[in-house]
Amino acid sequence: MSIAFLLTTLVVVITPGTGVVYTLAAGLSHGRRASVVAAFGCTLGIVPHLAATITGLSALLHTSAAAYATVKYLGVGYLLFMAWSMLRDKEALTVEREGGPRPALRVIGSGVLINVLNPKLTMFFVAFLPQFVPAGKPGSLGLMLQLSAVFMVLTFAVFVAYGMFAVAVRGHVLSRPRVMTGIRRVFAFGFVALGVRLAMA
Question: Is the pLDDT at 90 greater than 60, yes or no?
Fold first, then answer.
C-alpha cells in the first residue's frame, strides 16, 4: 500500500460531500450516537459501489450514458428530497438536550441511500483503484478488497470526526432557536447545491 494511495484517499474523504453534510446534520441534531450511526451508514453505502466495480457492473455505468444518467438523476432527486424534508420538517434538525435518539435503521438507511445513489463514487472506484492494482496478476482481487477496506475505514473515521465536531458545538445552539433555523436552511441549501453539482457532472 503506497503513501500516494493513502494521501489521495484522505483528500477525497476529507473533501465535504453529501455524506459529510448528512453526518454533520445527524451529530448536530441528535448527538454523538446518531453521528456515529450516520457515518456507519454512509460508509456502508460504499459496499454496493465496490461490488459493482468487482463484478464489472461499473463498466455499464462507465459506457452507458443512459445507465449513468438514470443513477445520477435518482441521486439528484434524493438530495433534493433531503433538502425539502429538512425545510419542511422542523424536527429534522432539532437539537434536544436529552439526545433525541432516532431509530438506527432509519439513520443508516438514509446514509446508505445517499452514497448508493451517487454514481461518481463508482466512477471513483473505476478510475482510482486500478492505478494501485496490478492488472492480471495473482492476488489482484485481494489487493483491491484490501485497498477498498482502507478507503472505507478512513471514510468512517473522517466522518465520525466531522460528527464529533458537530456534537462539540451543538451545546452552543441549544438555547438559540434562530441559529438552528439558519443552520437547517444552510444544510438544505447544501443538499441542493450538491444535487445541482451532481446533475451538472
Answer: no
Instruction: Give the residue carrying C-alpha cell 494521501.
Output: 7
Domain map (residue ranges) of the chain: 17-72+91-177
**CA 6, 9, 15, 18 torsion-angle sign:** negative
Residues 6+ apart with CB under 8 A from 2: 132
Q: What is the pTM assigned to this prediction?
A: 0.71
The Cα–Cα gap between 115 and 124 comes to 12
Q: What is the 3-state secondary structure (H, E, C) of 62-83?
A: HHCHHHHHHHHHHHHHHHHHHH
d(CA 170, CA 164): 10
Q: How many CB atoms lie within 10 A of CB 81?
A: 13
- Cell of residue 6, nine digits: 493513502
Average pLDDT along the chain: 76
45-65: burial string, b at 16+ Cβ within 10 Å, e else:
bbebbbebbeeeebeebbeee
Residue 162 pLDDT more than 70? yes
Instruction: Give the Cα separation of 166 and 105 in Å (integer).
Output: 21
Q: How far apart are CA 31 and CA 10, in angstroms?
A: 25
Measuring CA to CA, which residue among 37, 10, 199, 39 is closest to residue 119?
Answer: 199
Between CA 174 and CA 43 the distance in angstroms is 29
Q: The cell 441559529 sits on which residue?
A: 179
